[in-house]
């Protein structure tokens, strides 16, 4: 990790209500984008598709704005579908990630930079 913002557990927990809202908006936008792209996939062989509906473009704008907000905070989005995010942090002088997933009450896990979700350990 390089010159990233470092989060304490308290810092991360304070952001969770805002992040939960952003992650839910990302999920909904992702579903709308996939639904909007489906007609193109079905008709691409026939005539190259057609025009996208306004809902598709609104979803694209929402997705971009929410992703930018999360990135600007210095948070790493690992999986938009499950709402999995990592907060850069330190533990015993080592760089780690505090790990949280949408639906969890608070940040309760951490993992090293190389281990990912599979290496999650309780705080």
Account of the protein in words:
This protein is α+β, with helices and mostly antiparallel strands. The protein has one domain (9-122). The protein is 47% helix and 20% strand. It has two helices and five strands. The chain has helices at 9-47, 54-72; strands at 76-79, 84-91, 94-101, 109-111, 121-122. It has a five-stranded antiparallel sheet with strand order 1-2-3-4-5. Strand 3 (94-101) and strand 4 form a beta hairpin. Helix 1 runs antiparallel to helix 2 (54-72). The longest helix has 39 residues, at 9-47. The radius of gyration is 18 Å and the shape is elongated.
SSE diagram, text form:
Blueprint: H1 9-47, H2 54-72, E1 76-79, E2 84-91, E3 94-101, E4 109-111, E5 121-122
Helix pairs in contact: 1-2
- Count of DSSP strands: 5
Give the C-alpha Rg.
18 Å
Number of structural units classed as domains: 1
What is the 3D form?
elongated
Share in helix = 40-55%
Order of strands in the sheet with the most strands? 1-2-3-4-5
Beta-strand content: 15-25%
Strand count, sense and barrel status of the largest sheet are: 5 strands, antiparallel
Task: List unreliable stretches of 5+ residues.
Answer: none
Question: What are the defining features of this structure?
Answer:
single chain; alpha+beta; five-stranded antiparallel β-sheet; 47% helix
